[in-house]
Fold each of these.
Amino acid sequence: MTITAPLSSTGVDRQELESRVKAMYHDVAESPQGDFHFEMGRALAERLGYDPRALDRIPAAAIESFAGVGHFLDLAAIQPGETVLDLGSGSGMDSLLAALATGPGGKVLGLDMTAAQRDKATRLAREAGFGQVTFHDGYIEAPPFADASVDVVISNGVINLSADKPKVFAEAARVLRAGGRLALADIVTESALPESVSCNATLWAACIGGALQQDDYRAAIEAAGLVIETWREHPEYRFLTDSAQKASGTYGVKSISLLAVKR
């Protein structure tokens, strides 16, 4: 993803934010055992609801760098032969699980701005024989794919990092075919964040500072022409550091997943 909105729209220095996000997710790919604001790995994935049997079928190295915030693949209901776009695909865990559902006749397009993540995901997919999966350099506000070319858009814990969320949802709607689905997990808030949090690039990179108030988040999706059919919370997701936990408790920062359909 990238930070394309002007500074005045968010109050955060978008260049500093992009630098911090890239640095953090480089470390997620290269040093998944490091200290982060958030949990990572298989134990988190299973607690969020991922099927252990499916996880057993993809490379463990993709799972160890998993830094998602919820589970949504059941909502996506990916079918054999479909084309899936993964916004902010990271080291590829969700993309590879989507490929299990599409089968060899389908296609999974991972999109990520961090080179270390793309490189790791590409290597793992190739070594594991997932020929239907490709990973692309780009930004979630400007996916380099044709109009109405995708059956399902997925994303996990990434859209909150964007300074232009309406653009992300508009682009998701653009690439989706009629009847296509947007299935994602993300971080939202119960009350709007103050500038002391929303202008903090460190808390943005930690998936908190950029979190949108939940009613505004829903409105941005609907303004893009998508109809929300399912919305659920993930109380089992938690932040690790004191600063992240404080913001979470004060402003109702929480994990959700949803399914929206393009009519």
Note: The two ends are 26 Å apart (CA to CA).
Amino acid sequence: METPDWHTGRSFLKQTQLQESTPSAGTVTATDTPKVCGTCEPSQVLIPLPQASEIPMDPMLLSDIMEIRRTVRDYSDEPLMKWELSLMLHYTQGVSETGGAPHLRNAPSAGALHPFETYIVVNRVEGLEPGIYRYLPLDHALVKETCHVGGGEAVAAACRRSELILKAAVTFLWIAVPDRILWKFGPRGWRYLFIESGHVCQNLYLIATALGCGTCAIGSYRDDEMNCALGLDGEEQFCIYLATVGKRKD
């Protein structure tokens, strides 16, 4: 007899099997592509970030970065620089090409539909007040979000290991917007949604490693509490993945 966990997983796989009518990723056109990025509300002020192309970096081989990449859960009290945060945002969900429709980003996405919003909890970033911010990829800028039930502390409280969020310089939260991908791929899009969150998080690990920072991916959190803390309805938008970042102690 199968355990409930096996039943849940098998049910998900069956319900998201590829259908013959499901279009391929390369068939999106400019006329049928929905909005793939949140916008700035009239009451919000854009906080521009340094452009990645203007930030000098010491060259490192990608193979070397991948070899030394590790999950790091213990951070120093040193703040991140705004230019470091800028690079992390750029290489996880930043726009790499805008010449066509849809635009391309630095992480792969089925049909280039990019079904995520990026929120960050800032504890220690030079030039930014502590709080919750949302990243606008097309502007390469941040907007500060209203804290709903305690801000960063509520985000931390929703996680099994709340100290990770409290001690990190910044925590990345990827918010799924399933309609952006389901309209095209149907039930199969649910698989792509979870797969793509891994693409984005791995990019964060790599760029953070190159900058001498540590990262810890987090999947253990109470969904309803997390969505409440961020002001999300849990259906049209919900938190799918988190990762903390901070300066290494060594």
Note: The chain has a mean pLDDT of 90.
